[in-house]
Design goal:
Blueprint (H helix, E strand, L loop, with lengths): L1 E6 L2 H11 L6 E6 L9 E2 L7 H10 L4 E4 L3 H4 L2 H7 L4 E2 L7 H4 L1 H10 L7 E4 L2 H11 L3 E5 L8 E4 L2 H12 L11 E5 L4 E10 L3 E9 L2 E3 L3 E4 L4 E4 L6 H21 L5 E11 L2 E8 L6 H8 L4 H9 L15 E8 L10 E3 L2 H5 L4 E5 L2 E4 L2 E4 L3 E8 L3 H14 L5 E2 L6 H4 L1
Parallel strand pairs: 1-2, 1-4, 2-3, 4-5
Antiparallel strand pairs: 6-9, 7-8, 7-9, 10-11, 10-15, 11-14, 12-13, 14-17, 15-16, 17-22, 17-23, 18-21, 19-22, 20-21
Helix pairs in contact: 1-10, 7-8
């Protein structure tokens, strides 16, 4: 098949790297891609939010199968338009993508179908939201209803902080239209896990777990980011825990989405909070996580194209993914200043040498190429990944590669997988 991969981040580089290994992949093209993806695929400069442009591209390029990396084109309805012209696509419909596109849709679905999640209420009115905060107290969690590039969640440690977050969101200052409606929910004290499964609308195929590191600084300090690193599998994910997640959260969601008239085809990314060995659903994303995807692709030993195409065409029962028992780890290198204003167009050197280290893989996120040099042009710029017989070995290998890279304008956390190793 000629496959079109949509996206430009580290997740897409990892997906492309794995798709390319399949004997089912005759040619891989990517829109818009980045400097790393350009080394394995032909990149075409169509933005991920240009739905009409992407649909036209599939026709001019005679694409056989589309894999959608990020959430934005899914929420905008790209999958529906592709299915309407007979092109198989891995990714949910616009209606099903509301699971990520609207926190309110997701929370109300959980309430209606008894899927365990944090207690919550929804607001568009500032005084009512303030009154709810006074009633619940702090710590408390404020979430923008719409898409906010992974940054629309504020964990407030005081009532005053929470009210400020509400004011910022509902005034439109913080996230524009994405914050016009908000969810306020109880703060769950526990440990977060990311769990992934694929559905064809009817069948569910459990994949694997990872643990992300959301905050910018070591020891989980500082503001939330799109993710500063991850490792897989997550330390708390026992076979018993996995069974609970599948039977109490994922399988009920598959049935709920079908019952609501929007069966879900694609990947369920369940953000979970585990408290006393009991998992609750914090949120759903409708695409692979970034940087969790990088760790999953390093551990997947079976054919990714086979698996995603089976989901896209309603034959998920025919595949059985195999995983390496060895853990994997990803350290994100970001531009100085991230997640606020960050430095752009700085030169990154020594990437090739770092990538030659044993068990190391480097995935590009925010990069471009100019005059033979790799430049940083995003907030999160590189995913330095490694595998090993244990988490410590994988971490050692990843940080050895980090230390070889010559990029003074970049930084990373130095404690990825600290929970697994503490």
């Amino acid at each position: 098949m000629k496959i079109l991969l949509i996206g430009a981040g580290g997740r897409e580089h990892a997906l492309g790297w794995k798709l390319k290994q399949s004997p089912l992949c005759r040619e891989l093209i990517c829109a818009p891609g980045n400097a790393g993806i350009a080394q394995i695929a032909r990149c075409i400069p169509v933005r991920v939010d240009d739905v009409e442009g992407l649909v036209a591209l599939t026709q001019t390029e005679h694409v056989d199968f589309v894999v959608v990396g990020p959430e934005t084109p899914l929420v905008l309805g790209l999958a529906d338009k592709l299915r309407a012209i007979g092109i198989p696509v891995f990714g949910p419909s616009k209606a099903a993508a509301q699971l990520e596109g609207s926190k309110i849709f997701m929370k109300n679905l959980c309430r209606k179908y008894n899927i365990p999640t944090a207690a919550y209420d929804c607001f568009t009115d500032i005084p009512k939201a303030h009154a709810f905060i006074d009633r619940l107290g702090a710590p408390i969690v404020i979430k923008a209803d719409g898409l906010a590039a992974g940054k629309g969640v504020v964990v407030s440690t005081t009532v005053a902080e929470a009210k400020d977050a509400v004011n910022d969101m509902l005034s439109g200052n913080a996230f524009g239209n994405a914050g016009a409606s908000i969810v306020i929910e109880e703060f769950l004290e526990g440990e977060e896990i990311s769990y992934f499964a694929i559905s064809d609308g009817i069948n569910l195929l459990p994949l694997n777990s990872a643990q992300d590191h959301k905050r910018v600084g070591d020891g989980d300090t500082g503001p939330n980011t799109g993710g500063m690193g991850a490792y897989s599998p997550a330390r708390l994910m026992t076979p018993e825990m996995e069974q609970i997640v599948i039977t109490t959260i994922l399988e009920p969601t598959v049935k709920a989405m079908a019952a609501e008239g929007c069966p879900f085809t694609g990947v369920y990314f369940a953000g979970l909070m585990v408290l006393n060995d009991v998992p609750k659903l914090l949120e759903y994303n409708v695409r692979f996580g970034d940087p969790e995807c990088q760790t999953l692709m390093l551990r997947l030993t079976s054919d990714l194209v086979d698996m995603l195409y089976a989901a896209a065409t309603g034959h998920l029962e025919t595949v059985n993914p195999q995983w390496s028992p060895n853990p994997s780890l990803c350290v994100v290198m970001a531009a100085n200043g991230y997640p606020a204003e960050y430095t752009k167009n700085t030169v990154i050197k020594n990437l090739d040498k770092a990538a030659e280290l044993p068990d190391v893989h480097i995935f590009h996120a925010g990069t471009t190429e100019k005059d033979g040099q790799i430049l940083a042009n995003g907030g999160r710029v590189l995913g330095i990944c490694a595998t090993g017989p244990d988490v410590q070995s994988a971490r050692n290998a990843a940080y050895k590669a980090v230390d070889m890279i010559d990029w003074p304008e970049g930084f990373c956390r130095r404690d990825i997988a600290w929970r697994a190793l503490s």
